[in-house]
Fold this protein.
Amino acid sequence: MAGLAASFGSGAMTNSIEDIATHAAVYLVIGSNTTEQHPVIGFRIRQAVKQRGAKLVVADPRRIDLVDFATLHLRHRSGTDIPLLNGLMHLILRAGLEDRPFIAERTEGFESFRAVIEQYPPERTSGITGVPADQLQAAAMLLGTNKPGAVIWAMGITQHITGVRNVMSLANLQMLLGNIGIPGGGVNPLRGQNNVQGACDMGGLPDVYPGYQKVTVEESRRKYEEAWGAALPTGAGRTVTELIPDVLEDKTRALYILGEDPVMSEPDTNHVRKCLDKVDFLVLQEIFPSETAPYADVLLPGASFAEKSGSFTNTERRVQMVQQALDPPGEARPDWLIISALARRILAEGRQPSREGKHAGWDYHSTAEIMNEIAALTPSYAGISHDRLKSGDSPQWPVKDPGHPGTPILHVGRFTRGLGRFTPLDHIPAAELPDDEFPMVLSTGRVLYHWHGGGISRRAKGLLEAYPKALIEISPDAAARLQLGNHERVRVLSRRGSIEAEAWVTDRVPPGMVYANFHFPEASANELTIAALDPVCKIPEYKVCAVRVEKADKDVSGG
Amino acid sequence: MAAVSLKIDGKTVETAPGRSVMQAARDAGIGIPALCDHPALPPEGACRICLVEIEGQRAPQPACTFQVSAGLVVQTRSPHVVAARKLVLELLLSDHPLDCLTCESTGSCLLQDLAYEYDVKGDRWRGRHHDYPVDSSNPFIQVDRNKCIVCRRCVRACNSINGVEAISIFHRGFNASIGFGADGPMQDSPCEFCGSCVAVCPTGALRPKLAIGKGRPWQVKKVDTICSYCGVGCKLTLHVRDNRIIGADGAWDGPVNRGWTCVKGRFGHDYVRHPDRLTKPRVRHYLLHGGKKRRDGTGWDWVETDWDTALEVAARGLCQIRGKYGADSIGVLCSAKCLNEENYLMNKLARQVIGTNNIDHCARL
Ligand code: SF4
Ligand code: SF4
Ligand code: FES
């Protein structure tokens, strides 16, 4: 969440699920198909609307299910989030609904921000976003007059080349309205995977050690060098969206992959296959033979979540205990045991850490021991231990010491970086816009019954039965033009590949858009997606690329 | 607000104003039977099994809808209310299949428990009863309307917890029963298969299909853990028998989900025992028997091997690459599906052991 880090000094969901569910008077849900992607949070939003009359503004090009409960649906064009938000902030300022004391006391950069906002009057905003001016006005009033208000988003905001800027724009909005650091407010990015928050917290990123301590900051590096008893690399590393393409440049020669399936989850599948095909050495640790497995040299059988104990950190920074329920099948092993065994062997072949390092060793007997090491080296996890988690506590980080209760709301009274920073942001169009050859926009995502690359959910009997094959959403208009009936086969082509699947003719998608998921290898949307990256955080632009759509019985040449 | 003090079965109980007698009793550890009432749902007052005597009231009152007030004197077990409860049970059982031997709910059925407690056999008025076909046409939930007691728990769960309002009661009187959407099968209604209705059904009317025939409650080990699908982090209670997950419930003390889940959390965890699971380490043939790496021919065949060999081969391969091209030619991907502790180790392995900051995972994807 680089955008939040820049605006506030740290990047994570600022409020708790319980808090926004019970206290927000208005929700702006933008780029989050909450009822399908984070269903239990979707329940809570529906409850707030039905039971307490909370207002709900949904901004999404698609008519997602949550729209049925919305006070207002803004159906802006894909890739126009910044102009939409600028236009709303323009109207909020015009009506004098900004929180002046908050802006004066807790923020900086307001004037240059305001200068940009002034350039987004409703007429211009409507032109760029396709949202009628009266809807913009209504939305601005809903957000400006109902307090507190919570903003909720997911990958629909971040998976753009402007992902980081989109997030900053939402931070601008919430600072303008004074909705930060208070119950029922905040900026609330919903994280996708069960432990994506934890993987980030634990230093699973190229530029930070656990707890977001920068690898480029001398002091942090020294701390870990001392603890681990080894000299550590100085510059930030490369992201997954660089590491894999770099195989073709000979910059990446080997990969060790734990429980990830880049063939399914990375953009531009054809290109990913080419890269993995060329990599010199690939060690894959997995529970299933994934789509990436055919490229692996070594395949190590790991354990599922039910076969080991430890912790996950959810989207609201809550650390919770995962307890072993089953033995791993056959010779499969808990992953922490495999990683440590591999580490010991690599150390045996190469350099040895110094014995001085208090946490240099790899002889772990339990994940509880590993958590103690994490707590010792990670200020935001300093108060976490398995004993505490097992006693029924599940604190939200930062948890500064064993007696600290955790932090349900971030930035109360003060931002992590001191003052909150307004950032002036202008519209930047998507990397690949429709043209004559590829006249439609493709957006991608997931459905309720499946999960990510589908490797897991396709192996759950009921889920597969409920949603057995890929469906491509296409609007009735577009379908009529192609003489395409509901459930007929459709082919979608981009500059990078093509897929064929069954069409779902539905007005969930606007006329110029098709929507596809990446749960099924035989028709994965990532065959089509573009590897255009956000310049700062290198997120691919999954939500916009140009495609052509045809009825599938037509002959296709060169496919 | 000032606490309200009342007497239940002679015991003085303090509670907050606005609570029901049922809630006050529950908090004080006094059990009043309930069928339609559920702690996590709005009160309904439909089944009348919770009748209690309240001083000053002419007729017995349902404890679940009667609000407390100061000085209330409540009898929960007087002969009068016990007789009334027996009557309620007799009526319910007169149109109930009584196939407890094979019923999926045996051992976790409120009706069965109450019949046992009140010694009601259901043989008093056996007469006309329903014979609906059991509906197993959707992947997740078996619907047996013969066992529905019209307590409306499922209706309330769907309306007030999930919110989609997929269930209603159709028909009246003797024929009253649950139905989905416009009284069709569940899969044709707005149902999202979250299973909230199943979680609160007091009988065998709504049952999770995946668990059918797999074990009785007393044969099942329960383990609390966190869902493996999305970032919401619902706390689940897994039902385990013979080293398999046969079902899951939302844990009522889950700070995020408070007992509820979505379809994936409740019905999607059988994948851990899918036959595709990898159960033995494998390496490519060429790595054990020499020869160059080529992605065709027998050199690329998998060979199952022991852990020592596989780890040795993996470590050697990575070290060779590091020796030849430097640590930064290696990339490490950790996992948003794995534990914090494991991700920490991946970060330590990349930085301390291999010597690169090239570590990432699919946070961006
Ligand atoms: S499964 Fe969920 S959505 Fe479906 S009827 Fe039951 S409570 Fe409603
Ligand atoms: S039960 Fe559903 S909402 Fe809850 S964590 Fe699992 S996938 Fe997410
Ligand atoms: S439990 Fe009170 S009427 Fe049903």
